[in-house]
Amino acid sequence: MGLLQGATELFPVSSLGHSVIIPSLFHWGFKQSDPTFVPFLVLLHLGTAGALLVLYRVEWIAIIRGFFTAAVRGRISSEPERLAMLLLTGTIPAGILGVYFETRIKSLFASPYVAAGFLVVNGILLLGFELLRRRAERRAELHSKTRVEQEQSFAEAERISFRAAAIIGACQALAFLPGISRSGVTIGGGLLAGLRHQEAARFSFLLATPVILAAGLVEIPQLLASGVPIAEYLAAAVLSGIAAYASARFLLRYFRSGRLDPYGYYCLAAGLVSLALLHFGL
Amino acid sequence: MKSNTFAIGLGVLGIVFVIIAVLYALGVLQLFASTTSGPHYKHAILFAVLAVASFVAANFARPKMA
Fold it and tell me: A120: helix, coil or strand?
């Protein structure tokens, strides 16, 4: 489960959806209704957040420093300062929606059937984002250029507007629906805002870190009190972190010229196959 | 939008958020919480972040001397 969660959290294929569907398909002993299931997933998320902190450690130091400098001065005068304020702007709507709606939505939709259905929706969304991106490329007459040149014509994360950052942040709430990928909708939102694929992924990963970290740290007392095998769970969190680190490195390299299409097709196929398998009880 | 009135408004909003954060942390406030007793740290952290954001926005909205 640790490897699965870590690998799927950053890929735009919904870790929650996979965490709900795969144990059901393979008859693993995880009960989604169990009170320790969500804290367990949160602990795995902590592993992912740790991996992202390690990956972006230099950038986070610059962002934190930039935040305090800009906050005290009351003015933005460098790219890390702007990025810090963009991340704060994107984190607030995600935080509000997460605190007030996450548990209710997750418990309402924690069914393998629903997760498989939303995985199909996630696939359609990813393909839709790429369709709109191709349209933007055609409008900018970039079709004769190579993929890397096309990507260079789009913006870096620091250039995004504050309104776009808030909308992308709010889109993270869609990931409370099992099957809808947090990184998928935020990368897609970044693409619609005119970012390069790689920059959209970077912004998505940076945006996810504080929310995942805060949600994870808050759940730790509940996890400790629930009497679960904490050593096994921690080992799973470490595995999740390793898988997430490898996934993030791969994705950042892939998105230099790659698109969301393969993940969109994967989600469509995985969702439809899962629905069939669940329906026929295989 | 830079004006002293707007900046003061955001500062006051920040103070309100701090009070709400403390009330959630102490378990006094149970509004929209999943359980009806005990402290709600997630809500408290959220309002603490909102308070910080309000104070930062207030500082940005304050007219600066040239």
Answer: helix
Taking CA atoms, A72 is separated from A66, A69, A76, A81, B6, in Å, by: 10, 5, 10, 11, 17
Indicate the DSSP class of residue B64: P
pLDDT tens for each residue of B3-49: 889 999 999 999 999 999 999 999 888 777 766 677 888 889 999 99
**Is B42 within 8 Å of A218 when comparing Cβ atoms?**
yes
Whether the Cβ atoms of residue A155 and residue A215 lie closer than 8 Å to each other? no
- Say if the Cβ atoms of A99 and B43 lie within 8 Å: yes
Q: What is the mean pLDDT of residues A70-77?
A: 92
Q: What pTM was estimated for this model as a whole?
A: 0.87
* Segment A18-55, tens digit of pLDDT: 777 777 777 776 666 666 676 777 788 889 999 999 99
Instruction: Specify whether the CB–CB gap between A125 and A132 falls below 8 A.
Output: no
User: Alpha-carbon torsion A125, A163, A17, A96, what sign?
Assistant: negative
> CA of A261: how far to CAs of A68, A129, A134, in Å?
39, 9, 11
Q: Which residues contact B65 (CB under 8 A, 6 or more apart)?
A: none
Binary contact (A75, B64; C-beta < 8 A): yes
Phi–psi pair at B30, nearest 5 degrees:
-120, 10
* Number of A–B residue contacts, CB under 8 Å: 33
Residues of chain A contacting residue B59, judged by C-beta atoms under 8 Å apart: 71-72, 74
pLDDT over 90 at A246, yes or no: yes
Residues of B whose CB is below 8 A from A104: 34
Residues A180, A172: Cα–Cα separation, whole Å: 9
Q: Which of A182, A229, A165 is nearest to A49 (CA)?
A: A182
- Tokens (6 digits) for A203: 């912004």
Nearest chain B Cα distance for residue A100, angstroms: 7
